[in-house]
Amino acid sequence: MVFNCVRRHVWAFALAVxxxxxxxxxxxxxxxxxxxxxxxxxTLPNGYTFLIxxxxxxxxxxxxxxxxxxxxxxxxxxxxxxxMFEHMAFKGTPRLGTxxxxxxxVALEELEAAYQAYERARxxxxxxxxxxxxxxxxxxxxxxxxxxxxxxxxxxxxxxxxGGVGLNASTDAEATTYYYSLPTNKFELFAYxxxxxFLHPVFREFYQERDVVMEERRQRTESQPIGRLIERLxxxxxxxxxxxxxxxxxxxxxxxxTMTDAERFFRQYxxxxxxxxxxxxxxxxxxxxxxxxxxxxxxxKGDKPAPLRxxxxxxxxxxxxxxxxxxxxxxIEAYHKPSALHPDExxxxxxxxxxxxxxxxxxxxxxxxxxxxxxxxxxxxxxxGVKYPHLFLVLAVPARDASNDQVxxxxxxxxxxxxxxxxxxxxxxxxxxxxxxxxxxxxxxNSGLASQLVTYQTLTGDWRELFRYVQRMEAxxxxxxxxxxxxxxxxxxxTVGRIEHDATGGTQ
Amino acid sequence: xxxxxxxxxxGSHLRLVASLGLIxxxxxxxxxxxxGAFAQVATVDELKYPPLPAFSLPRPTRTVLPNGLVVLVMxxxxxxxVSVSAxxxxxxxxxxxxxxGVAGLTGSQMRAGGTEALAPDxxxxxxxxxxxxxxxxxxxxxxxxxxxxxxxxxKDVLRVFGxxxxxxxxxxxxxxxxxxxxEASIARQNDNPGSIATREFRKLMYGADSPFxxxxxxxxxxxxxxxxxxxxxxxxxxxxxTILAVHGDITTAEAVAAITEVFGEWKxxxxxxxxxxxxxxxxxxxxxxxVKTDVAQSTIRIGHMASLKSxxxxxxxxxxxxxxxxxxxxxxxxxxxxxxxxxxxxxxGSVGSAYTRIAPFAMSTSTKTGSTAETIETLIAEARRIIAxxxxxxxxxxxxxxxxxxxxxxxxxxxxxxxxxxQYEYYGMPSDWLERYRTGxxxxxxxDVARVAAKYIDPSRFAILVVGPTDGRDRPLSTFxxxxxxxxxxxxxxxxxxxxxxxxxxxxxxxxxxVLIEKAVVALGGSEAVDxxxxxxxxLVARVVQGDGxxxxxxxxxxAPPDRLxxxxxxxxxxxxxxxxxxxxxxxxARGVMPLAPSQREQTIRQGRRSLVxxxxxxxxxxxxxxxxGEGRVGGTPVSLVRVQYHDDTMTVGIDTATGRILSLLAKGxxxxxPTEVLMEFADYRPVGGLVLPHSRTSSIDGRRMQSVSVTRxxxxxxxxxxAFDPQAR
Lengths: 508, 730
Hints:
The complex is a heterodimer of chains A (508) and B (730).
Chain A (H helix, E strand, L loop, with lengths): L16 H5 L6 H11 E5 L5 E6 L5 E8 L13 H8 L12 H23 L5 H19 L6 H8 L3 E7 L4 E8 L3 H13 L6 H17 L2 H13 L13 H6 L2 H11 L5 E7 L3 H12 L22 E7 L4 E8 L7 H12 L5 H9 L3 E10 L6 E9 L5 H17 L4 H18 L3 H15 L4 H10 L3 H11 L5 E8 L7
Parallel strand pairs in A: 2-6, 7-11
Antiparallel strand pairs in A: 1-2, 3-5, 3-6, 4-5, 8-10, 8-11, 9-10
Helix pairs in contact in A: 3-11, 4-5, 7-12, 13-19, 14-15, 15-19, 16-18
Chain B lengths: L11 H8 L3 H10 L28 E4 L5 E6 L5 E8 L13 H11 L7 H10 L3 E6 L4 E8 L3 H13 L5 H16 L5 H14 L11 H5 L3 H11 L5 E7 L3 H12 L22 E6 L5 E9 L9 H12 L5 H9 L6 E7 L4 E11 L3 H17 L4 H13 L8 H14 L5 H11 L2 H11 L6 E6 L14 E3 L21 H18 L2 H5 L4 E11 L2 E12 L3 E8 L2 E8 L2 E6 L2 E4 L2 H12 L2 H6 L6 E11 L2 E10 L2 E8 L5 E10 L2 E15 L2 E11 L2 E13 L14
Parallel strand pairs in B: 2-6, 7-11, 7-12
Antiparallel strand pairs in B: 1-2, 3-5, 3-6, 4-5, 8-10, 8-11, 9-10, 13-14, 13-25, 14-15, 15-16, 16-17, 17-18, 19-20, 20-21, 21-22, 22-23, 23-24, 24-25
């Protein structure tokens, strides 16, 4: 069964993020030297940064543009807006996707005025239903009028027609990333489209697309047991930090936020100093830089958005959230940990790997093989992001005849052991060997490299940290692991999330 | 190409920017651009592209060892890594129905269960200490093994890779771990609406009992022993039916030498030709639903079995058709369902095909419950439209450009080229498949695409499947035809006859099941009336679907449980009488008296036991158990589903939530191609004596009606002639 086009998304949580931050090894110094020769950093006067990595091979290139904005920049009322803008970035420009922009612009202004009127009428304490209905009808009429000017999906059309592959974008709690790959002879097309879409995006079909995003929320969060559990867990584990908010947004906000909200959000965060693009493939920096200057130099300079103010306070209480559902049991423990920029980051990686990676890992050996209470266990940091202090997660899938309580007990013993006993020489050696191999394996694909480079550049300010992380992993000691595990796995730092099976529960 | 050209409005973007108060900065940006070079273009159509430099990668070398092992090697010295992929000829399509899961378990345990030389945890450590990996698996029509290793460990790990392929240990403790993981996944198989839809749609397309749709059950996984794995492996893995593909930082000569050292003395077994079954081109039709109340959407699948193999010349036109229908954001399904109507986040639809076998045409999406009917209607309308209004020149050109302009990405890396050649070698495809594909796509005409749309998509054959809540739909599903409610309850492990269920699913479901059964007894006339029936006589007319037509059969049935039954049939081909009396069972016809095979006798007695009166009489028996199994619908009527086990028989009964009448019974029966799930629906309830009994029974398989029965007369406790059950009397 072919299931196409699952695109524009990724506010989904990803345990994998942990391993993204965890790479490198002995060969790294050499790799760094060879990469430094082939990688050009080019910053425009407006603050836009490009990383251009020249590679041999087929005449193709991949790019990733990372904008330093995610759902952490939202406040209640506009949750989901970072992700919504990501969808809007595919709707075209005044010169792409329209039959007559002059008239379309007027129609869009009237449409937004009609929506605002409708929104005001229905938001009052005692709405006048007849008036609300009339305004809704008027809004629908304006929507139809504006639609008449639209050439749908023109942006996608050009990319696909010219041979682009992997066109997509993703939004998470702290970043919005846009990417695809093209044959090298279409480099100017890339420069044209990617500068135009951020120079003057047009928010056409905004309210239809808002419906699509609601379906995305229903499909990926509301109709999946794990989606429901993670949303509730985040909301509970964080007291203050916006990491508590779902990236896709609350349903009520999706039903109410407006085109005007989205434009305001765009102007504030889509400034060149907040954007980095990595280009990886068979391109020559010397040849492409003039093209980048010409196209991306047009983006107006803007102030780098102010950093977030709210810092998550220490937890100081054990928290538990239980969903009683028709679904089968699931068990999660989440612990607060510092930002990935913290010097102890590689120690957290070591803890995650020794506990949860592969068949030699402690949780697999103990919970799955020996005690047989679980059939799967995953461990990692990175929920819902890594830039700010976030959660370190342990997720276990109980066996058919085992309870969450049995899993909890077995898990507790392993976490305590991590804090009280040294890991073995073998475990530490395995961690280091894998770090080196992981780095080598991650260097194979253009698109994978592009996305790693923009991630490190945005988070740390220097792509070289991708390679330097090696030495930091090498330096992790047994004492580090005990020290960090002891502070991490405290009861007062724990949020437990469970799904308990209830045959009558969970009806929506 | 004649696309609609976006109207160019030279001043417009400046005005927009000016309105943001930023015009000065934009001008500064323009001035900063290099002089003399061409300026940036205004519209995308003004872009001129240089030709793409010629680029091609070598094919891998191919060596055949004397034992028949085929070795493909592709050198790639960019990174210090080597990988080896193996394919061997086997697959779950070859499984017997009572051992579903044996192929997959053998596949995973070749690696997970260790080798003769290395116990499982020693093997795990050996690999993970080197940051190396070996994984194995068996899919529906191929076995795979793959290793990935840092170059310096290649030779050591290759030896272990050889052992994994040839000398797996199948450690019993690891088999148990795997079995538990499979049982956990069976328990979870209804947690995700998408996986329910995929599984049930496969059943509708291929037939529930076909090897293409069968799923692992508690019973089938428990029936599999270590000996089964050993036997499967011995049969499946042979050098003459295995291909190895080596990729990475190694020379061809070194690779072939290393492979020869590890695999050269591997002796081939007797020559065997492995043939996989082919799917039947027919598939279910009609409307089917699986009720799932804890989700926010209807997950929808619509389609039928199509008849294309990728080896057929139509393949290229169909790829263009698929691209137009759902190839991307500009495709018809996407534009209509998502962009224009905002009905769904993801939508797809295409004519499937494999190189060696046919596959379904299928459309899929999910939408909020309140737009279920609108979305189904939209999908069907698009399927009809692609036939009535076949793709335009413009659409075809766009699809073709998209395929051809991105062609370079099909062979951009050496790993990709090797993987393709491995696949071609395994399935017997031409090694220049990709070049043929390109030429084929270039030659597709508008007439071709119109022709294949009509040939491979047939809306009159659609099956519609909806997974989700029944409440809150915009219109009832019956808008699209009679609705069959699918039983998606998870069958518990088979219960041996005369033994109480050893692991009741749960007490609440058992209690609810009891209540529903009592309700059904009341609806049938009450316990006294039900339990008072000792003998039941029915006269009936059955209309049996045969090919395109129907055969009418008159029949009289005399049932006297527990083990006596007489059925007289007068069919077009003559009169037949079946008599069962205890252990004796015969069939009398013009050709004489023939004993029934034990399995036929069993089947006949089982049919009698499913007669509603006698089924409900069984409710006090120790071999009877009933568990509530969710909600469903029969026609438009909401029913409570009850999973009943009675003697050695398992069935799902649909009880009208309002009246308590039994409206459906789903159980194993005899289909045209073998045992399958037969759905019997009951209607036309009328009073008879103190009872109220259905006088109409319709049987169907996968939504296809097989037989309709009208009961013309019922007698309760009639007088029975002395020789009625005498097998010798005529």
